[in-house]
Amino acid sequence: MAQHNEFGKKAEELAVEYVKKQGYKILTRNFRFQKAEIDIIAEKDNIIAVIEVKARSTDAFMLPQEAVTKTKIRSIVSAANHYLEEFNKHNEVRFDIISVLPDEKGNLSIEHITDAFEAFDAN
């Protein structure tokens, strides 16, 4: 497996542990619909958080969350709508991004951006 794929998997594992510690219940991971994938779908306080995990080894060129384009948002929203229909969920939905970057010492730091975008941001 390529090194960047391993880094991405490690970042996603860290994100899952982080949201669990914040009191979220993980509903599913790596939910796929057509060509779209949602990294984490979690629930807390009756709100479903659709979470995109973005990791970078450096922020020299862009912050991880800046890699979530309008095209990516459209695919996440489409997959989220399918998930809600498939599992008959009627909760409020929020779209979050968890950004993972190494700090100065090489430790991975997590930034949880709640309400990072809304469904209509994709238009």
Automatic annotation (TrEMBL):
Gene3D superfamilies: 3.40.1350.10. The keyword Mitochondrion does not apply. It holds the Pfam family UPF0102. Keywords: Endonuclease, Hydrolase, Nuclease. InterPro entries: Restrct_endonuc-II-like (IPR011335), tRNA_endonuc-like_dom_sf (IPR011856), UPF0102_YraN-like (IPR003509). It comes from the Bacteria. PANTHER family: UPF0102 PROTEIN YRAN. Belongs to the UPF0102 family. This is UPF0102 protein BCF58_3009. It comes from Chryseobacterium defluvii.
